[in-house]
Design a protein that fits this description.
Blueprint (H helix, E strand, L loop, with lengths): L1 E2 L4 E12 L6 H4 L5 E7 L9 E11 L8 E5 L5 E7 L6 E13 L10
Antiparallel strand pairs: 1-2, 2-7, 3-6, 4-7, 5-6
Length: about 120
């Protein structure tokens, strides 16, 4: 975790979500659910729910169909979140890579608890 000051931390990552053209998966064929979810667990948890952003860093698609997609973060907790990628209609997607960034409060060495 990168620390920005005493009590703010940053986690970041990059993941290939799917590669459906190789095996005729649902995002490529257009059959079945057109949603993919990936659980991300932070290597070190935050002390509170962080702010998380998700973006596309690679999008390989069929040029003969419309380009439609929605990507975001859901179910965010101090321990992790889900990347959610969706498409619809005639869109055919071969593969997608998503990058993410989480910023939030972390435990400081100077923190102490009173019981």
């Amino acid at each position: 975790m990168l620390r920005l000051g005493a009590s703010v931390g940053v986690h970041q990552g990059s993941r290939i979500l799917f590669s459906d053209f190789a095996d005729g998966g649902q995002m490529w064929t257009g059959n079945g659910p057109r949603e993919y979810r990936l659980d991300v667990t932070f290597p070190e948890p935050f002390t509170r729910t962080p702010a998380v952003t998700v973006g596309l860093s690679m999008w390989d698609m069929d040029h003969k169909t419309n380009s439609r997609m929605d990507i975001g973060a859901e179910n965010i907790t101090p321990q992790g979140f889900q990347i959610v990628f969706k498409t619809w209609g005639d869109t055919r997607i071969a593969r997608v890579r998503a990058d993410w960034l989480a910023i939030g409060s972390v435990r400081d060495d100077e923190d102490w608890e009173i019981e």
